[in-house]
Specification:
- Helix content is 45%, strand content 13%.
- The chain has 483 residues and is an alpha/beta fold.
- The strands form five sheets. The protein has a five-stranded parallel beta sheet with strand order 2-1-3-4-5, sandwiched between helices. A five-stranded parallel beta sheet has the order 7-10-13-6-14. Strands 8-9 form a two-stranded antiparallel sheet.
- Helix 4 runs parallel beside helix 6, helix 13 packs across helix 15 and helix 18 packs across helix 19.
């Protein structure tokens, strides 16, 4: 059997060499070039079974080339690579007809598996693409972040732009669920129609049904009737935030709407047809609520057609610099003092656990811009604000614990439960492991997995750090394994 030919285009010579070798090792014939002109020449002459191309090349952008490829050879799968890892890049790749979008850096196995899938006889058929009616240049990005967890979010959003499938967004508070819901609407088939959001936790339980479906009769605050959110969102998108707080009675009515596509208003008799796309969101464990009888299982399956988990900020710390700069620009636009931030301050921000996620980070930046003088945000300012915030949130007026006092309290867990039994053993090793693991993980996080820098930060020999990483079973993403 003749091996499949991969047309590879990237102006980075070293990357092109590595990809060429990796694809050749899988048995593919590879033709590689550094420019779009040569790539188009090969394609127009009928060469190649698949294209792997970078977006930005010296002579032409791959997004400008894609429509010509789809016209000339619509069956030819095109995988686009990009270091400009934003949600708009993913959506543009999808709508221009790319088989898949691969954000840099990526694992070589991910690329070879993707090529194999695209060339398989049972490969996915091309879907109808939608074109964005907005101008790319200078547009404010709806979502910020280039980390791998966010790339997965972007990919799913891009794949959903041509559908009206119901989506269930899960994630902790402050992870940006409403932003994702708006992106699904703004770049989907219903853009231009209404996007209506309702937060179940913010409405008294007895009023939720009237808010959703409207209300007829004298009970309505307005003469005649109250318009519900379903009517407001007709032909558009209805975002049901904090769906886990919806009372059971309203859940039953919502299920009927999803099943039948119609509803009656509270106190009304007439059936109303509805055409809305539903996006739901929750920070609760709905499976546990189902087990406890607090959420309908049949409604869950109706809403959970496409589940999409949004990562907490602590899983995407590398996005903090981009997020901070975005929030600084936004703060200046809101007439807060213009500021910049130095690298030490960014490093300090990346050591924080961010229980409040992106919303907590945004509030911190706004607070710093508002109350601190000077043009530059330093690590000292960040530490002061984070410490003050923790102190203001505590239930006691005691001073913040030192590391020693905190450890002393945790050590009680080893002694108090023993009671009159045998005294605890091996405490030294157990305590060291509990301290070492988060310490090493945070150093690796700040150094982006660079073990040499992490060892220097810890004051350890590199071989010693490697042994500890192995003994503690710490997962390290090594930069040299990524392309």
């Amino acid at each position: 059997m003749t091996p499949a030919t991969v047309l590879l285009a990237d102006d980075d010579n070293s990357l092109r060499t590595v990809l060429n070798k990796a694809l050749a090792m899988q048995g593919y014939k590879v033709r590689a070039t550094s420019n779009a002109t040569t790539l188009w020449k090969w394609i127009s002459e009928g060469e190649g079974d698949i294209v792997v191309t970078d977006v930005v090349m010296p002579d032409e952008n791959a997004f400008e080339l894609l429509p010509r490829i789809k016209t000339e050879r619509p069956e030819l799968p095109v995988i686009v690579m990009s270091a400009q890892n934003t949600v708009l890049t993913a959506i543009t790749a999808q709508e221009r007809g790319a088989y898949e979008y691969l954000p840099k850096p990526f694992d070589l196995n991910e690329l070879t598996n993707l090529v194999q899938r695209a060339l398989s006889p049972a490969k996915e058929s091309e879907k109808v693409r939608v074109r964005l009616e907005t101008t790319r240049s200078g547009e404010n990005l709806p979502l910020i972040g280039r980390s791998q967890p966010m790339q997965e979010v972007y990919r799913i959003i891009a794949r959903l732009t041509a559908t009206d499938l119901t989506v269930m967004l899960t994630g902790e508070s402050g992870t940006g669920k409403e932003l994702v819901a708006r992106a699904l609407h703004d770049y989907g088939r219903r853009r231009g129609k209404s996007f209506v959001a309702i937060n179940m936790a913010a409405i008294p339980r007895e009023l939720i049904e009237a808010e959703l479906f409207g209300q007829q009769g004298e009970a309505s605050p307005a003469p005649g009737r109250k318009i519900g959110r379903f009517e407001q969102a007709h032909h558009g998108t209805l975002f049901l935030d904090e769906i886990g707080d919806m009372p059971m009675e309203a859940q039953t009515r919502l299920l009927r709407v999803l099943q039948d596509g119609e509803y009656t208003s509270v106190g009304g008799d007439n059936t109303v047809k509805t055409d809305v796309r539903i996006i739901a969101a929750t920070n609760k464990d709905l499976q546990r609520q189902i087990e406890n009888g607090q959420f309908r299982e049949d409604l869950f399956f109706r809403l959970n057609v496409v589940p999409l988990r949004l990562p907490p900020l602590r899983e995407r710390l590398e996005d903090i610099p981009d997020l901070v700069r975005h929030f600084l620009v936004r703060a200046e636009m809101e007439n807060l003092p213009a500021k910049t931030i130095n690298q030490d301050a960014l490093d300090r921000l990346m050591l924080h656990d961010w229980p409040g996620n992106v919303r907590e980070l945004e509030n911190l930046i706004r607070r710093i811009c508002a109350i601190h003088s000077g043009d530059v945000i330093t690590a000292e300012i960040v530490t002061t604000e984070l410490t003050a915030h923790l102190h203001s949130d505590s239930d006691s007026e005691e001073e913040l614990e030192t590391l020693s006092t905190s450890i002393a309290k945790h050590l009680d867990d080893y002694f108090l439960p023993s009671g009159e039994g045998e005294p605890p053993v091996d405490i030294y090793d157990k305590v060291l492991k509990e301290l070492e693991r988060p310490l090493i993980e945070r150093c690796l996080r700040v150094t982006h997995g660079n073990q040499l820098k992490a060892a220097a930060m810890l004051g350890l020999n590199r071989n010693t750090l490697r042994k500890k990483i192995r003994d503690l079973d710490i997962n390290v993403v090594r930069g040299q394994n990524l392309m």
